[in-house]
Amino acid sequence: MSGQREQVLTGLGVSYGISIGRAVCVENHLEEVFRLPLPAHSIDAEVARYHEASELTIRELTQVKMGELPGDMEDGLQEEIGGILEAHILLLKDPSLVGRVTARIRGEHVNAEWAVHRTTAELAEQFEAIEDDYLRGRGQDLHDVGTYLLRALQGISHHELSEVEGDIILVADDLPPGEAVRLGRHRVVGFAIGSGGRTSHTTIIARSLKVPAVGGLASVTQLVTDEDPVIVDGGAGTVILHPTAETLEKYARLRQAQDAHDLEQQETRHLPSVTLDGTQISLMANIDLPEEIHDAANYGAQGVGLYRSEFLYIEQSPKLPTEEQHLRTYTLLAREIAPNPVIIRTYDLGGRKLARELMNTREENPVLGLRGIRLTMARREMFRTQIRALFRAAYHHDVRVMLPLVTSVDEVREFRVFAQEIAAELSQEGIAHNPSLKIGIMIEVPCAAIIADLLAREVDFFSVGTNDLLQYSLAVDRNNEHVAHLYQPLHPAILRMLRFILESARQAGIEVGMCGEMAGDPRLVPLLLGLGLRRLSMSPRLVPEVKACVRSLSLPELEQLAVTCGSLATAEEVDGYLDRFLKQTASMTEESPLEVLS
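Given the sequence above, the corresponding C-alpha cells read:
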C-alpha cells in the first residue's frame, strides 16, 4: 500500500459494474494553441501540413475501426462503435470543415493549429449552448475531431499500455473515442473520467465493452498517480483511491456477489411478470441509445416504454438525420424486442442556442420555452422526416409515437392534423405505412394532469413522466441541495394527480404507463400497482428486481394500501405507512425481495 489515506470520489455512474485495478493516468492535455501570423510565402506549406495531419488521423482512426474492435463484441455494439469512428472519419473529410480550416489559414495568414482550434470551437458552440445534458453529452464529435487534429499537428504520440502488467483502471480528464477503443483492449477493467455524461462517446464505448466507468470526476488526474490502487463502482458512481485492505476485500466480495446476482436476474427474464392473484404487469425499458436494446431483451423487458429520439439529432450533427436513418433505428429497436411495442418520444430539444437558430429568438429560460410538442409544431418541416419514418416503421412492427410536454387539447389536435397530412402524403407516394399509428402523450406537467380526463379522449395512451411532474408540481429542483429534501414522490398532491390520471385513462379506455424514476423503484411499486398502474418502464437493469417484487404481491392488498395512503396528509405519513406495509409483507413472504427494502 502507498500509505496514503483512502479517498472516495463521487461522480456519475455511466457504465455498470465494479472493477479493481492499478491506475494508469492518461494525460490528454494539448499544448496551448497560439495564433501565429505567417508570411504569405509559407501559406501553401501550412495548408499542406494541415492536410497531412488530417490524412494521418484518418489512417489511424480507420486502423482502430477495422482492426481493433474486440472480436467477441455483439454485432450491434461493434456497429455502434464503428459508427462513431466512421462519423469522425467522415467529418475529417467533410468539405465544409476542410474548406473552413483552409480558408482561415489562407484568409487570416495563421498557423494550422489556430485555424483548427477556432473552426472546430465555432462549429461545436451550438451543442455546448444546449441546456439539455443529454444533448450536450452527445455533441462531442467536433471536439473529438479537433483534438485528433491538434494531437497530429503537435506531434503528440499515442499512449501505450502493452507493457503495463495487471488489471488497469484508466484515469483521464477526457478520452477521445478512438483512444478509448484502442486502449480499452489492453486489460483495461475500468474507466475514471473527469468529463463525460451518460451519453458521451467514451461512455458508449465503456458500456459496449462492458467496462465499469464513472464520469464527471473533476480534476481526477491530479489526485492519482500511476500504479495507485483504485476501485471503480459504476453502479454507485464512486471511485475509491488508495483503498485499505479491508475496502479491497469488501469490494472483491461485492463484485463477486454482483456478478452472481446479475446472472441470476438474467435467468429470470422468461418468467412472467404477474402478481400472486394473476394480474399481468407489463415491465418495459427506457433507453437512450440503440445498442441498449440488447440489455432490454437480456433483462426481460416487455417492450420499450421510452426511446428518447434526441440521440439521432446529435448522432448525425451538424446535419439532421434522414428519413431512412430514422427508419433504420426504429426498425432495429422494434425487431429486437418484437412482438412487444416500442414507444418513440419525438424530439424534446431545448436550449438558448437552438431556439435562437430555429426561431430567431433568445430564450432566457429554455426549459419552460420552445421545446417538446411546441417545437414540433413551430418547425414542422424539421419534424416531418421523423413522423414519416414513424408511420413507415409502424407498418411491420408495433411502433408508437409519444409527444412530450403536452399542455393542452389544442396541441394534440393540431398534431393529429399534421400527422394525417403526412399519412396522406405517404399514401399518394405509394409508400407502405400504418395510417393508424398510435399516438400518445407524456403527462409530465401539472396542467396536463389536471385535464387528464379531457386529454384521454384525444389520444391512444398516456405515459406519466414523474421526474418532471414532481419537479414542476412541487417547485423543487432535486439537484439543488437546499431544497432537495422537498422532492417527495409520496407527496399527497402527487398521489392525487396519479389517481386522477389513471382514473381518466380507465374511463376513456386507453392504456397508461409510467416512465419516470418512480416506475423503477421497487419500494414504490406496491403503491403504484395499488393505484392502478399496469405498465411500468425503467432502466433495463431494474426490470428483474421489479419483476421479483411484482411476483411477490397480491393486488387486493395493494388496492387497500393505495386507499389508505391516499387518505394521509403528509409525505412522511405515507412513507411511514408504506414502510410498515413492506415490513409486514416481507415477514409473511419467505425469501421475499422486499426484505432488503425494509
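The chain has a mean pLDDT of 83. Try to locate this feature in the C-alpha cell string yourself.
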